[in-house]
Structures are given as C-alpha cells and as structure tokens.
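anyone seen this seq b4? input:
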Amino acid sequence: MKIYLNGKIVDINKASISPLDRGFLCGEGLFETLRSYNSRTPFLKLHTDRLYASLKFFNIRIAEKHDDFRLVIRRLLALEKLSDAYIRITVSSGLNGAATVLVYVKKLEKLPDSFLAGGIRLSISGTARSSKSFIHAYKTTSCFENIFEREKAAKKGFANALFLDGTRKYVTECASANIFLVKNVVLSTPRLSGFPILPGITRHVVLETAKKLKIKAVEKDITLDEMNKADEVFITGSLHGIVPVRSINSRLYGKPGKTTMALMAEYSKTANNFVR
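predicted toks r here
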C-alpha cells in the first residue's frame, strides 16, 4: 500500500512518524474523510476549504495547497487501482512546529443495500453536547468520545448514536454524521450557531440540493419532541451520502419517504456525474 507522507509517496511499511509527534502524544490534529466516485472526487474542494479554515484556527501551517491534494489523491487511486475509495487526509501539529501531513486511500466499504432501502436504526447517546464547548465544530483527531459512543451503539445493534444537548431537549448531531428531519415536506437540520456541530460537507451539499429541487429547508434548533413527530429522518456523511433512518430508539419512521428519496437521487447524480 502506498501513502503520501510529508511531501512524498512511500510504501506504508517504510513510512515513519516521530513518537514525539503531538498528534500522537496529545491528539493535536485535524482530518478529512471523503470518498471517490469513479476515480473522481466531486467534493474535495469543500473538504480542503474546511481543512484550511480549521488549520488557520488552530494555527497549524502546511505547505500543501488545494491542487496538491487533488494530484496526490489521483496518484494514490491509480497506484492502488481503486475507483470507489475511502480517502483520508490527516494533519497533525507534528514536532517543533513542523506539521505531519498524511494521505491514504483504501477500498470503500459500502453500506448494505438494505440500509439504503429500508433505513438504519439510531440510538440516543447518554453523552451530551455542551453549548459552551467549541471542539465538536471542528473535525479533530481527538474524536475518542464519538468513536466510543458509536461503538457502544453498534454493540446494541444500532448503526449510529445521536447526541442531545445538556438539557436532553435539543438534537445536535450523530457520532459520525449530521442529521435532518422532514415534516410536512419541509426539511430541517440543527443550526450550526446553536450547539457545537460539525459543518458537514454532505450537510452543505444537501442544503444546496434542496434549493435546486425547490424543497424548503431551514436550519434551526430542533427539539427531541420535534424529531419524534417527524415524517422522515435521515443522516448525512461524506462516505455514504444520505442514509435514511428507520428508527431512533423505539420511535419508528419506516422506509425512506418521498423527500428523502428525491434528495438521495439528486445527490447521487451530482456525485457520479462530476467531471474534472
């Protein structure tokens, strides 16, 4: 397997990072995960825009530019002979002010067709999102809480875990996805300025897709009661796009509704017809 590490494409077995790298010691780092469609990366610019904004906020500097990442990913896809791939860009604060930049690709593990056709099951996490914290608004490598909650949910047969706020009244996001609901053909998702929610790339694309399809969309505070009364619910993420939700705990929503299906179809068209 070939990877990109600090300016060079090397064999993974010959790659090395300092044990004193602050990404390893302290979790000081940022990352982006995305996927390719037929060897193309339609949303890469959105991901690198978010990455550079986060790097600026945390005062981490790298030499790589937007097009450097595009070329590196294209090269890695060719070397690994992959067309539909999982792609990860990781930047840690490194050592002595020199950041570590890692890019690798691997075969994409696709969701079962049954999840897309029938929806997934979500649990509600017992861990809350604090409105006084900012960290969850950034895609940091310090994501142990999210991983722990998602794995705990998986052990109980759920595909993901939904976080509420500290009052247990408002919906925020899932452990590895943003969340949307549809009520009376109106699309809603938690606003970014409410609680610390990751500004997901697919979240952004879905809101733009809703405009294109003339579906009314609002960003607002969403209560758990509103979520329970929704007609349709789905989550969004860069690896799997739009994934319908069949149930949250014991609340059953059923199979994907018309609005969810329309958004899924248009999102797929946008991703698969990208040309560059």
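Helices lie at 22-26, 44-57, 66-80, 113-118, 144-155, 201-212, 224-228, 258-272. The mean pLDDT is 95. kinda curious what u guys think
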